[in-house]
Amino acid sequence: MHATLLGVLGLALLGALHAQDSIPVQTDFQQDKLTGRWYSIGLASNSNWFKEKKHVMKMCTTVISVTADGNLEVTSTYPKGDQCEKRNSLYTKTEQPGRFSYTSPRWGSKHDIRVVETNYEEYALVATQISKSTGSSTMVLLYSRTKELSPERLERFTQFSREQGLTDEEILILPQTDKCMADAA
Question: What is the helix (H) or strand (E) element at residue 17, kind and residue range?
Fold first, then answer.
């Protein structure tokens, strides 16, 4: 009985590790082309914070720049109540181009971030596996250089999010807003 339980747990862990490794990364990723201003168009997640906040979430802006040591400085500006809030994150490059790591100083969660696909001028699809002491979650972001994207890109975001095991209730096309758009760095 004990050996069977260990075997099942081992298979579950192996399956989870395989699922994490099966998330693709953009072929021939060109980091310098990812820099600049983006709009967050879509967000999908199975995390508790997303479930609690998704009804108040709106489109936000994100500015990506490369640091002197080749990491990414990611600054997001988003509406929160009647104010604009900024969040800065440093995504550390890994040996695999297009894949980054980040540890939240506030929550201690570890983020495995992958640029899944992009054409650099129109859209970027980014997947993140988040691990913390209370468990793990998945997040998928759809970025656009403009406030609108074609139905095909929106459908690709939804399809990819479902492929990561997210349900339709966990997938959100963010409502457009003009709030905080001019305040972005």
Answer: helix 2-21
Q: How far apart are CA 140 and CA 43, in angstroms?
A: 6
One digit per residue, pLDDT tens: the chain, 185 residues?
444 443 434 434 434 443 445 789 999 999 999 999 999 999 999 998 898 888 889 999 999 999 999 999 999 998 888 888 999 999 999 999 999 999 988 888 999 999 999 999 999 999 999 998 888 999 999 999 999 999 999 999 999 999 999 999 999 999 998 888 875 54
> What span, in angstroms and rounded, lies between the C-alpha atoms of 66 and 74?
9
Judging by DSSP bridges, how do beta strands 83-93 and 72-80 pair with one another?
Answer: antiparallel
Structure-block tokens of residue 131: 């691990």
Burial class of 150 by CB neighbour count within 10 A (0 to 12, 13 to 18, 19+): exposed
Any idea what DSSP says for residue 79? Answer: E
Query: Could you identify the residue written with the tokens 């080749």?
Result: 70
Q: In whole angstroms, give the CA distance from residue 121 to residue 33.
A: 8
Question: Annotated catalytic sites, by residue?
Answer: 60
